[in-house]
Design goal:
The complex is a heterodimer of chains A (262) and B (269). Chain A contains eleven helices and four strands. The N and C termini of chain A lie far apart (70 Å). Helices cover 56% and strands 4% of the residues of chain A. With 262 residues, chain A is mainly α. Chain A is globular and about 55 Å long. In chain A, helix 5 runs antiparallel to helix 6. Chain B is mainly α. Chain B has a single domain, classed as P1 Nuclease. Chain B contains twelve helices and five strands. A three-stranded mixed β-sheet of chain B has the order 4-3-5. Classes of the chains: A mainly alpha (262), B mainly alpha (269). The interface between A and B is large, with 39 and 36 residues.
Chain lengths: 262, 269
Amino acid sequence: MKKLIVLIISFAVISVNSAMAWGGFAHSAITEIAERNLTPQAREQIHHYLNHSLPFYAIWMDQYRYTDPYRPSGKWHSNWMDADGAVDMANEKCAAYQVTRIQKLMKNYKNMPKEEVRLNLLYLIHLVADMHCPGHNVWPKKSHPQYYYHLTNNKGKKESFHKVWDVDAIQYGRKKWTASYYADKMATLSPKEIKKICKGTPYKWAATSLPNAEKTFELTPKGSNKQKYSKQTREEMRRICDEEAVKAGYRLAYVMNQIFKK
Amino acid sequence: MKKVALLLLSVFAVIGASAQTGASMKRVLEGSMILAQRNLSEDGKEFVRSFLGQSFYEDVQYLYYLEKKNQAEYSSDIHFLYLDKNFRPMKREGDDLIATIEASMAIVRDREGRERAEVVMALRTIINLMSDMHNIGHVRLESVPHSMQDFKIWRYNGDTPKYIKRKYQVEWSRFWNVYSGSHSGMTGAMWADDYELAYGAKANEYAAGSLYDWVADIGKSANEIYKWAVPDYEMSRIQRNDLEDFYFEMMAKLGYRLAKMLDMLAQQQ
């Protein structure tokens, strides 16, 4: 009976904790940073194509990925590596490939049907964020078998490596933070610093994020108990997520501003 | 014993899910309240400030707060909007949403010489019930018998064989909370900005008319929805997605209409 009560209480705690979904929080925070950094011209044009604000559409691709005709886009949410461990820009599934493709396509947005422009903006809002998720980098199994491993919890049960980085890491010690508070606290770069991180292409952005992605394996090794990471490990995990999320916010604004540049 | 354990397990699962929905839902409503506040006239702002302080987004759930503390004057039926076949408020015995709003409006209009606490309570009641009536899950239509009490529907998280198996049963009155849960992280101010951006152009249209016109508008929308929303209805992810904009438009209507109501009360004395 005691065991049963412990099981029930643990389940209750897990239910409440898992409700703190990183997906929604981080996507809202990234789009809030982007929203604050749009040029007036870009904001006006985006509103012409989208009814709502960027944060409203932050998880649009997740909401529609299992429904036709958007099902193929469900495979675009990660960066895929080639056999040499480089970002595979020949792979249509690769988020960096899709962002590059859409950037090129949107150069001609004035001649595109409104619905097509709208759809591609919705893709960009989500993909620029997702390509910066530390757990969204996929290597071939041969070179990085660790990508395919599982973590554990206090009960010795399997926990998804991907979910720990998507859901837990950015919110360690911040359960009451909101997206706008995150943007207030974290998006404090100077114009010069913003210019520096926005330089380059989506391929280069993805490539420069790889060292952070590699660190995920050191910080959360195979079979490690996700509930027993030290304070130092948690702080490092959060730092990595913050670095990537803030870059994603500024870069999303940059991509939008470039598309709608006068 | 096993049955008791399973029951407890389900209760905790619901607590877990509603902890998320509760916080997100509060922010969505906070967005409507901020929108209302932004759209008040200067006199309206001063009037509201004099009774409710700098902000009133906590007041939107004040009756629920009293219910939790067993201090409510009304039964929970007060939160449901009952309309006849012409989408006018039904004449009902006992606690009634529209009758209570009207009685509260009369108290606020007749505030001279009344106890301040009575006027504050009346304003809080108006705000809470205006919010309730904009929730389609709280609308009951005489012409649609199955809508006259709560029922359960199923929703599933996609339309592939893998996801169709993940079916969730949910009470109709709570189904609409799913939309706030999808946008965790957004604050009340972010919602207010979003409502202005998406629906601001229709603000005057939404706020036009009287309480009875607003109720009729809500009733007509509910009537369309009850054509398919029946007990045990299975809602796909596609349909759920398609309804999202409707839900947030209702939240914007609430904000613009509440501003008009409070402005009107500020002027009447």
